[in-house]
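Report of the visiting student (M.T.), summer placement. My assignment was to run the structure pipeline on a short list of targets and document each run. The first record concerns SWIM-type domain-containing protein.
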Amino acid sequence: MELVLSSLSEEELEDVVRENERKWISKGIDSAFNMINSSMTNTIKGFRVVNEQAGEIEIDFEWYKEMSKAFVCITDKNISDLEFDCDCSLGSSGGMCGHFWLGVIFSFKKNFFNISNWTLFELPQEFIRKIENIEIIETKSGALLLTDKASDNFLLQEYIGSEISVKNGEILRSERKSYEYEGKETAYYLLTLKDAIVEKKTVPELTIRLSEGLYTKNLLKIGDRIEVKGKLIKDKFQGLLVKFIRHVTIGKLEKSKVKSITKDKHWTLKSSSNANKSYTITLKADGSWSCTCPQFTFRKKQCK
Ligand SMILES: [Zn+2]
Ligand SMILES: [Zn+2]
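After the run finished, the structure tokens were exported:
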């Protein structure tokens, strides 16, 4: 590296440095926007204004499962020599990590400084344009977060960590997932609901997690409209997700359909243990179920 650099003219060297700087800046900005919009690696717990007058803020975040902090102070007074400190590996070695950029955005949104006073280096136009859509919000649990009005998550950001009711969501997709825990396979379903109503807002797409038991008990299928209550969380891999659902109500639309059945309805299902056997499930006019499988007839238990 040294050899290559020493063979460059001063002008060329400056270009290399500037090019590198640009690369690091856009990397940090991308990381900040990733943290605002999803939560792939580290979850931001919240921003805190430590000293409003001095423009001092702290950011709480999880870094490799450890609670960590970043301190940022950017005001019109100190803008050419701003203060920044971060626990993450890049930040603690003096780099401009995503947390730095989160601090820049938050401080700017708090009006601690005017963007036209920024002289440290040239801010990318893309960044200035993008932060127009960023807003500070307070979640129900009182944490301050940044939200991107241009992102899908925007509508529900303030309910993260809270119990929410999801109404009239149409099942758009369903995916069975399973994992092994203490030698036992546990399965669950991830359902994507279309146009669900959450706290009077219509959410274009929302993912919910249902236990396999709940999924099969309700005989759910694509196109069903359902109502659930659960906790909205920000999952590392799924993004926003409604979890801890204990009950599913088939929407009014479906219920009225069930009520209008005057004749018994029958379905034939292949046995899961013997491919030559099949059972008939009956939905009676009174809305009760019965099944010809041994589990239902002999044990009087609710089967699938
Ligand atoms: Zn950092
Ligand atoms: Zn059965």
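The first helix runs from residue 2 to 6. The chain has eight helices and 15 strands. I thank the supervising group for their guidance throughout the placement.
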